[in-house]
UniProtKB/TrEMBL annotation, chain A:
Species of origin: Methylobacterium nonmethylotrophicum
Annotated TM spans: 58-82, 94-119, 139-161, 196-224, 244-269
Protein name: ABC transporter permease
GO cellular component terms listed in the entry, alphabetical order: plasma membrane
Keyword Glycosyltransferase among record annotations: no
Amino acid sequence: MFALILPAVLVVAALLVGPMVLLARISLNQYSATQLMIEATTAQNYLNAVADPYYRGVMLTTLVMAFICTALTLALGFPAAYRLARMESRWKSLVTVLTLIPLLVGNVVRAAGWLGLLGNDGLINATLRGLGLTSEPLRLVYTPGAVAVGTIAVVLPYMILTLSSVIESIPRAVEEAAANLGASAFTVFRRVVWPLALPGTVAGCVLVFILCMNTYATAVLLGGSQFKMMAPAVYDQFSKGMNWPFGAALAFILLAATLVLTVLGTALLGRRYAR
Amino acid sequence: MGQVRAGPGPDTVTREAVTRMRAAPLSPLAAPALAGPGLSVRLGRLAFLAAVFLAYAIVFAPIVMVVVTSFFDQEIVTFPPDGLTIRWYLNAWAQRDFARGFLTSLQIALAATAIGVPLGTAAALALVRATIPGRGFINTVLLAPLAVPAIVAGSALYMFYLRAEDWLDMDIKATLGGLVAANVLITIPWTVRLVTASLAGLDRAAEEAAANLGARPLTVFTRITLPMLRPGIVAAALFSFVASFENLELNLLLVGPGRTTLPVAMLSYLEFRMDPTLAAVATAQILMVTILMLVTDRFVKLSRIV
């Protein structure tokens, strides 16, 4: 049986685990303008990243963006997931496929769509101008707001699918019992659906938060040159800066921040509602 | 996405009984209550439907937009369009970056699927059917490529490839082999995930019956297990292909001049301009993904596996 598992495990070990160890080692090396990289064991790259106000700003932007987008995605995704979970007709499978397709269409494709919608001559500005509401185009694209909307559009299908699979497993009879006993729709949601769906909510938020922290294409294409998030900053170090040790350190800071916050979030939410 | 379950599974018997008993649907969020709901109830229901609509509007707005602009007659996207045309589709194919990017992505995704699906299927089979020590750990390792941010994994592979080029004295970065190897990291975890999900629903009785009737293990595997697994494997192959074809971040540092994938070519183009030619390329991809997912859904109900 091991013979069946071994090839796949070896491939993942050779192409993911090994390279990640190498990247960790490189993050402890020293950068040199002439030799690119000098073998060393120093935490200097990490200290530099934390001390530099520019990268502190990039990290803060990334965190704020990820929190806002996750919260809004949950607020928008929950009603849609509930509706999908409680569908009973043959439409349900069609709606599921429809929810899944955007998830598989690349982020670049969707950023292109947002550029067409939000650009200076885009649909929204053209409509506003046509209605005589504005004379100058509104600056919609290349703003943090554009990145937020673009990111939410990317991660919403993940949230909807995760939540709906959990809501589906809540027996409808439980809701009906609460309603029969006089609970209002909001009370049923707050006291019955929300607590029972909580494991799914946590899982969905963790997944979405990770995706938001690592936004690349949306941030690059909709954020403009002034707006910087962590994933593009990592890429820049490797492709343009050629400062590999610093880029490696940034990559691990991003990875660690994501990991610590998701573990912390899961533990906090789990404890608060565990009973 | 699908592993999370809350509380007990749906009690279908109770649910059916309740459905039969109730005169009017009472589920407060899903269906209208008894005649004459109060204003606040109606407003609440309206807000609920508005939220559902808004969620799907945000998801589909950019996709619809791309499809629409690919037919605009003028070169710079402005509203309203001067007219409609399909010439951008021909123009897109005439652009070497897009045509070559498409062919490169196609090659990479096909090869990565051809390698990753057999490896992933074998591993999933053993993980579900055999009792192996450390099964949970192996499962985590095999799914890890989906959990590590693609830009971080891509940077690690980039460094690894440069190191390996030094050792082996050969080109790896921006070669077909290097890119296929990277994309196998996408196809293996998706295959493990989808085949595991479809294996979990299979009844072992048919295999046991065949073995009892004297079939050798290999015969049982080729005549019983494999045919039962076929929908899961087809779904895994289509899903893996699409995930690899559409991937941007993992390949970003591994491509080079002369060998670029389609998403990377589109990204560099979009950093300068958004025009109907790019929208045409994007629309072709949307069409491809839609068709492949509808085909996948015929083999395995996607609502069951995601």
